[in-house]
């Protein structure tokens, strides 16, 4: 009887623990996009645990409370594109229109673990894009530049690649670029990127990205932070948002990857 | 005691919707329309029952729709009320100069999803234009149908407002009587997200200006040349479930707890 009671107690404890854990990721300010073309934010996303269209790709792990993001091609995936499973930051619930400048800054804190990754025909792991800072021109900039559509491109990308983290970013092709040209796609190029000092493999990783007063710092576990504060940071006048998830960079029919998120928090000064 | 309060509530709710000034259209038959005075006895009408009935637990009027019969000018089906200022008469309507106010408390508790998982959309309130017989004959139309100046959607848990704008603001008074003279505006979403919860919408037209308010908090205002020139039409309010899907197996429920109109 005592054993039974203890077992029951432990079970209840596990339940409480799991629930507390799952409550740790607040999805209020995120918009989900799945490989099927499914999109959800605010109310629709808050209801994700009851939505059968979400479950195959995005669900809570009942044991450890993490958010499981699984990516594999589906009917809705265009064969010319990679398999998208991403959360896009929405500072204003349900709206893509409110974003932040590097000057205003922001902090993303996350803990994740790549738990499964398929391999290509040469036996090499596929790679997935985990975190981005995406930039785009504002409505106001579009008007001033006479653009019909926003110019958009990622400012920073963090991949899981070769069992390490690879960080790439946009840099100015010509450091003397000024004025409107700074908002043109042609003025920027992606750099070759750098790898994290240590392999992360299939272990849990903590990352903090801090944008403060136009300076960008990336903290990976306990490694010395990577700090970027050159012209390519100071001359980036786009508005930005964080993107987090498991954006699998493969067109292989059988590609598949699973990333678990244990923590996902965004902070902007002056915003609760 | 609990039972008593439930009963009181449901009677109260019933009193909050005066069906003397409404005609219901349901998606069955050709489709079927029932106006005053027959609509007052809707609870004993077996034809209406699947589509328009009272929820016995909260007293709300339930509008259920799925793709079935459509009316002549539409491709979607509806379980929707059409205002009748004079009971039983479609010919008496109101202009933007005369104005009107509609206030409803409602919810959209259950809607199907398409193959990707997008929720199907529902129009929950409208202001519809109508050609007088003279206008109809003038432009050689064979019915009195004019565009809706206002469509309010439930769109993935948000409330979306769409109105009409003139394609050419210099068009003549006769030209703007034609459907094709009017285009859709871009549409606006209220900030507040309603999901499947109860909310209140108020539509007010006063001296040619139209306002829409959600939960007595956020208001959209429409005025200017498009609203001024809309003055040429007569109008009527609509409320209920105009279901925006032809997908097989799709459906939506809309519940109205209160609905009142004044002029």
The main β sheet of chain A shows up as: 9 strands, antiparallel
Q: What is the fold named in CATH at topology level of chain A?
A: Jelly Rolls
CATH architecture of chain A: Sandwich
User: How do the SSEs of chain B run, as a string of H and E?
Assistant: HEEEEEEEHEEEEEEEHEE
CA radius of gyration of chain A: 20 Å
Oligomer category: heterodimer
Portion in helices of chain B: under 10%
Q: Give the total of domains of chain A.
A: 1
Over the alpha carbons, how many angstroms does the gyration radius of chain B reach?
18 Å
Helical fraction of chain A: 10-25%
Distance between the termini of chain B: 39 Å
Secondary structure category of chain B = mainly beta
Q: Based on DSSP secondary structure assignment, what is the total number of beta strands of chain A?
A: 16
CATH class designation of chain B: Mainly Beta
SS-derived structural category of chain A: mainly beta
Q: What is the overall silhouette of chain B?
A: globular
Unreliable segments of chain B (pLDDT under 50, ≥5 consecutive)?
1-14
Order of helices and strands of chain A: HEEHEEEEEHEEEEEEEHEE
Biggest interface found: A-B, 19 and 14 residues
CATH class of chain A: Mainly Beta
Percent range for β-strand residues of chain B: 35-45%
Characterize the structure shown.
- The complex is a heterodimer of chains A (272) and B (263).
- Chain A is mainly beta and 272 residues long.
- Chain A is 14% helix and 38% strand.
- Chain A contains four helices and 16 strands.
- In chain A, the strands form two sheets. In chain A, strands 1, 2, 5, 7, 8, 9, 10, 11 and 15 form a nine-stranded antiparallel sheet that branches.
- With 263 residues, chain B is mostly beta strands.
- Chain B has one domain: Jelly Rolls (Sandwich).
- The radius of gyration of chain B is 18 Å and the shape is globular.
- The chains are: A mainly beta (272), B mainly beta (263).
